[in-house]
Amino acid sequence: MTGSASTDLAEAFLRARPRLVRVAYAVLGTLADAEDVVSDCWFRLDAAHRDRPIEDVDAWTTVVVARAALDALRSARVRRESYVGPWLPEPHVGDPIRAYAVDEPADRVTLDDTVSYALLVALEALTPAERTAWVLHDLFAVPFDEVAMTLGRTPAAVRQLASRARRHVAARAPRIDVDPRDHRRAVDAFVHAAGTGDLASLIAVLDPDVQLVSDGGGLVSAARRPVVGADHVARFLLGIAAKIGPGFRVDPRRINGSTGLVVVDDETVLGVMSIVADATGRVVRIDLIRTPEKLRSVRANPAK
Predict the structure, then answer these.
(1) Taking the chain, what is the end-to-end CA distance rounded to the nearest angstrom?
(2) Is the distance from CB of 223 to CB of 200 less than 8 angstroms?
(3) For residue 253, what pLDDT is reported?
(4) What was the pLDDT predicted at 101?
(5) pTM, rounded to two decimals
(6) Which entry of 14, 132, 165, 201 is 20 to 30 Å from 102 by CA?
């Protein structure tokens, strides 16, 4: 392969890379594993191109990345059977949000908008094959023929997989359409209420049937089962705050494209909170990620 051809191939891969990472992340639910899968894809692409030029780099790499992510997910599912407490996806934490209740445009688009955290949680209920079929076809518009090649099944079988997955996702994903500015105001109200330390104030911003799921991986303090109900969730959160002690801060950050929170104490990231709010401004679901391994890529001060 000539230097020019090699450069063209590398440039084509770099253009495809952000999308490939999103594909792998949506299948796996872990950013670190997604990055590994995509990095390995480059070596496969380079080797395959030397034998026979790859004309459509986007299509070729999508199939390779999806297959590798599917294999990794099958292995991960076996390991997760012995996981301590609920398993939550690894969050994609973006930039700090300044004056986030009023100043930022409602239509801002980020690279991770296609894979919201609530959607990742809903995808955990699917089988690996269902999840891969749904992610490729419904989320990234890959034709069923190409999905069939990825999964090693017929297009008809893949259509059935995607249809089952679609029903599961519709049943489990939050059916809430809230303007991003309203969502940010709900998070702002939640932070203010929690900051008072007053139980009644915190309960007031929570939906009566709010659910909190916390992932500590057996390494840090977390609930082994979902916490349900405004009173129980409020007490749990205030209890966590009391254990941390004074001096910690809660920073509004983009969690998979939506306003969420990062808990920091003495420049150490203690947790990430993905928050779902309804049209009334009340919080209906909180996912609290505290497992250190899932927080290792989150910087306490990303601006520095």
Answers:
(1) 42
(2) no
(3) 94
(4) 40
(5) 0.86
(6) 201
HEC assignment per residue over the chain: CCHHHHHHHHHHHHHHHHHHHHHHHHHHCCHHHHHHHHHHHHHHHHHHHHHCCCCCHHHHHHHHHHHHHHHHHHHHHHHHCCCCCCCCCCCCEEEECCCCCCCCCCCCCCCCCCCCHHHHHHHCCCCHHHHHHHHHHHHCCCCHHHHHHHHCCCHHHHHHHHHHHHHHHHHHCCCCCCCHHHHHHHHHHHHHHHHHCCHHHHHHCEEEEEEEEEECCCCCCCCCCCEECHHHHHHHHHHHHHHHCCCCEEEEEEECCEEEEEEEECCEEEEEEEEEECCCCCEEEEEEECCHHHHCCCCCCCCC
Cα separation, 117 vs 115, whole angstroms: 6
In whole angstroms, give the CA distance from residue 181 to residue 204. Answer: 20
Please list, in sequence order, all residues whose beta carbon lies within 8 angstroms of the beta carbon of residue 261, skipping any fewer than 6 positions away.
187, 191, 250, 251, 252, 253, 255, 272, 273, 275
**CA-CA distance, 232 to 221, in Å (whole number)?**
16
Six-digit token string for 263: 């808990």
CA dist 183 and 102 (Å) reads 11
- Rounded CA-CA distance 256/111 in Å is 9
Which regions in the chain score pLDDT beneath 70? Answer: 1-5, 97-114, 175-176, 303-304
